[in-house]
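Exercise: predict the fold of this chain.
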Amino acid sequence: MSIKYFSYGSNMSASYLRRFRNVETSWSAVGKLKDYQFVMNMPGPNFVEPGFGNIIRCKGSAVEGMLHKISEDDFKRIVASEGEDYSVEEIIVETSSKTELSKTLIYKSELSELKTSRRYLKLIVQAARENKLSTQYINELSGKASVYYPIISEFYSIVVYFWVKSRARKIK
């Protein structure tokens, strides 16, 4: 059985899902989630990765992302790799041809916007460009505040890579 999963951060990239989360998409489409806003309000583990992407309700705003069709097991793998502080929500996503009922993950946070790492911001912007999201939205993403610490940031990106891979492998 398959489900439709709306992704709005690094998971927008089908190649990222495959390489880092061991998830295969059977198809993907650009989608828009109305009355939500993309924010960096999920706290990271330290000052090198201070914040990660999330969505919050915000009347009149919209989040662009990717709607992926994936297996239920792959969705479980995504949930396991993201962590227990997310809730799975059913949402309505608009594509170029129709509206689709899908699932997404929303982090439970009362925090406002945090800075993110340059590494993570680069992943998100690259995924947005790869999927041809709107120029306006890509510019919004590119304008997010980020941090970079030479050598420490490179080391930590390797740590994050292996941490995500290990969590994704727990569900097979």
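Check your answer against the key: The mean pLDDT is 89.
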